[in-house]
Automatic annotation (TrEMBL):
<keyword id="KW-0223">Dioxygenase</keyword>
<feature type="binding site">
    <location>
        <position position="134"/>
    </location>
    <ligand>
        <name>Fe cation</name>
    </ligand>
</feature>
<keyword id="KW-0408">Iron</keyword>
<dbReference type="GO" id="GO:0035516">
    <property type="term" value="F:broad specificity oxidative DNA demethylase activity"/>
</dbReference>
<feature type="domain" description="Fe2OG dioxygenase">
    <location>
        <begin position="116"/>
        <end position="219"/>
    </location>
</feature>
<feature type="binding site">
    <location>
        <position position="190"/>
    </location>
    <ligand>
        <name>Fe cation</name>
    </ligand>
</feature>
<dbReference type="GO" id="GO:0035515">
    <property type="term" value="F:oxidative RNA demethylase activity"/>
</dbReference>
<dbReference type="GO" id="GO:0008198">
    <property type="term" value="F:ferrous iron binding"/>
</dbReference>
<dbReference type="InterPro" id="IPR004574">
    <property type="entry name" value="Alkb"/>
</dbReference>
<dbReference type="InterPro" id="IPR027450">
    <property type="entry name" value="AlkB-like"/>
</dbReference>
<dbReference type="GO" id="GO:0035513">
    <property type="term" value="P:oxidative RNA demethylation"/>
</dbReference>
<dbReference type="GO" id="GO:0005737">
    <property type="term" value="C:cytoplasm"/>
</dbReference>
<dbReference type="Pfam" id="PF13532">
    <property type="entry name" value="2OG-FeII_Oxy_2"/>
</dbReference>
<keyword id="KW-0560">Oxidoreductase</keyword>
<dbReference type="InterPro" id="IPR037151">
    <property type="entry name" value="AlkB-like_sf"/>
</dbReference>
<protein>
    <submittedName>
        <fullName>Alpha-ketoglutarate-dependent dioxygenase AlkB</fullName>
    </submittedName>
</protein>
<keyword id="KW-0479">Metal-binding</keyword>
C-alpha cells in the first residue's frame, strides 16, 4: 500500500535495519513468480511439523538447505532440497550493503563481511498464519539475516536477544520491505503476530497472503 506517511529507512535496534520499499515492483513480481515455482513439489511448500506434535500455520519451502526443527538437512522426504539461486544471493547482498550503510552496528559487524548466503526459507502466510516469537539460531554463523516481504502487510514483532519478554516493538512489514538483522541483535527474538488481509499492492502477481523470504548463512 502507498503510505500516507512516508516510512524512512530506520535502524530499529543496533544491527536491525528496515528499508521500506527496497524491492521495486518488478523484483517483487519476479519473487512471487519464483516462489510459485519453488512451492511446487517435490520438496515443495509444506507446513512444518513441530516436535511437540503441532504444525506451523505458515507454509514453508526451503532453498539450499531444508530447515526442520531445529536443524538444517540436505533432503526433505528423501528428495534433495532445491538449489539456492545465485540471483537471489546477489539481490540479498545488495540489500545488505545498503542496510550496512544505514547502521553503524551492521557496518562494523565482521560477520557481515563477504556475506554468502546458502539457505533461504520461503514462508507463505495466509490471513490466519502467524509465527511465534523465536530466535533464528540453527545457523552456525553469526552472519546477518536478510528478509524480503511481498504481498499483504505482516506485523513483525521485534523483541530482544535476552528472552521472549518485553521490550519488543511491532513493526509493519509491507510489500517490498527489506529487514536485516545482525550485529548485537542477530539473535533477537522475533515473530509475526498477524497478517493484514487485503493490504498487498496489485501488480505483484500475488493473490491473497504474504510471502517472506529470509536469506541466511548456515555456516555448515
Ligand atoms: O515472516 C517474517 O517476517 C519472519 C520470518 C521468520 O522469522 C523466519 O522465517 O524465521
Ligand atoms: Fe525467524
Amino acid at each position: 500500500m502507498d503510505a500516507l506517511i512516508p516510512r524512512p529507512p530506520a535502524e530499529l535496534a543496533p544491527g536491525v535495519v528496515l528499508v521500506p520499499g527496497w524491492l521495486g515492483p518488478g523484483v517483487q513480481a519476479r519473487l512471487v513468480e519464483a516462489c510459485r515455482e519453488w512451492a511446487r513439489g517435490p520438496a515443495g511448500m509444506r507446513r512444518v511439523r513441530l516436535p511437540g506434535g503441532g504444525v506451523m500455520s505458515v507454509r514453508t519451502v526451503c532453498l539450499g538447505w531444508h530447515w526442520e526443527p531445529y536443524r538444517y538437512v540436505r533432503a526433505v522426504d528423501g528428495v534433495p532440497v532445491k538449489p539456492f539461486p545465485e540471483w537471489l544471493a546477489e539481490l540479498g547482498g545488495r540489500a545488505l550493503a545498503d542496510a550496512r550503510g544505514l547502521s553503524p552496528a551492521l557496518a562494523a559487524d565482521p560477520a557481515a563481511d563477504g556475506w554468502d548466503p546458502d539457505v533461504a526459507l520461503v514462508n507463505f502466510y495466509d490471513a490466519d498464519a502467524r509465527m511465534g516469537l523465536h530466535q533464528d539460531r540453527d545457523e552456525r554463523s553469526a552472519a546477518p539475516v536478510v528478509s524480503f516481504s511481498v504481498g499483504d502487510t505482516g506485523v513483525f514483532r521485534l523483541g530482544n536477544p535476552e528472552g521472549r519478554g518485553r521490550p519488543w516493538r511491532d513493526v509493519p512489514l509491507e510489500s517490498g520491505d527489506v529487514l536485516v538483522f545482525g550485529g548485537p541483535n542477530r539473535l533477537a527474538f522475533h515473530g509475526v503476530t498477524r497478517v493484514l488481509p487485503g493490504t498487498g499492492p496489485s501488480g505483484t502477481g500475488m493473490g491473497a497472503g504474504r510471502l517472506n523470504l529470509t536469506l541466511r548463512v548456515t555456516g555448515l
